[in-house]
Amino acid sequence: MDPFIKWLKDQNLISRGDAVYVISDMFDLSKAYHEAGAKLDLNVLIDGLWDIVGPEGTLLFPTFNWDFCKGIGFDVLKTPCKTGALPKAALKRDDYVRTAHPLYSFAVKGRLTSEFTAIDPPNAFGKGTIFELLEKYDAKALAIGVSALSGFTYIHHVEKTVGVDFRYDKNFTADYTDRNGNTSVKTYSMYVRDLNLDPRHINGFEPLEKIMLDKGIIRREYYGNVMCSSLKVNDTTSVIEDDLLNNGAANMYTFAGADR
Q1: I need a surface site. Which of 60, 83, 112, 259 has the fewest CB within 10 A?
Q2: CB-count exposure of residue 60 (10 Å: 0-12, 13-18, 19+)
């Protein structure tokens, strides 16, 4: 068995039957393999994660691409992702299916694939989206080689759900080619920053992550120097909401354009 997968399985950061949103940066893990005289094989890693969750589980790799915002057409089968090496590897595989949103898509495999691929919401976050399904199915997030919240896009879903004053929905229109090869002009929205307030996240939401670590919501372990963390998506919701509604998002953002 691949040594990292064996370690991950022994740590029980994710388990059989879990729906897992995988957040990753392969730099440190690749370096660890190199120092051990081996080479990291991304497909072996993907297969190993699948072996842990099994056919009762579901794996989701973020395959985001924001070129649609520039009027560049999106093709579900052909448009590359901009979210790192591991999602790129998953997207190339025949056993993973890409979800529909041209900005926030995922490569998915497992029991819940049909639920995640059946929807085509016009909005990126909020009702009817992938992120609502992550809530519904009590998904976990697994972060490999990166802090747990630095790529945890679910935060923006909570922002949309509660309604914040530093973001607003903005529509984008471009050509859209579905998985059957049919092309049409479509409009999708993104919950964008209000540039007058200019929210900038604090070092990967580090203060908020510390709160979640202290509360036991995030579990962090190390494979050598490689940081790995897991959390239940639903366990984070109330902490995020509290910071947004009662603390001016002070554990999440600085606001260059306004006093808050």
Answers
A1: 259
A2: buried
Nearest-CA neighbor of 97 among 85, 83, 184, 111?
A: 111
pLDDT tens digits, residue range 14-51?
A: 999 999 999 999 999 999 999 999 999 999 999 999 99
Residue 230 bridge partners (DSSP): 142, 219
Number of domains in the chain: 1
For residue 255, the tally of other CB atoms under 10 A from its CB is 17
Q: What is the dihedral of CA 71, 72, 76, 82, to 10 degrees?
A: -110
Residue 192: inside a domain, yes or no?
A: yes
Six token digits for residue 121: 């919401």
User: What is the spatial distance between Cα 83 and Cα 91, in angstroms, rounded to a whole number?
Assistant: 11
Residue 260: inside a domain, yes or no?
no
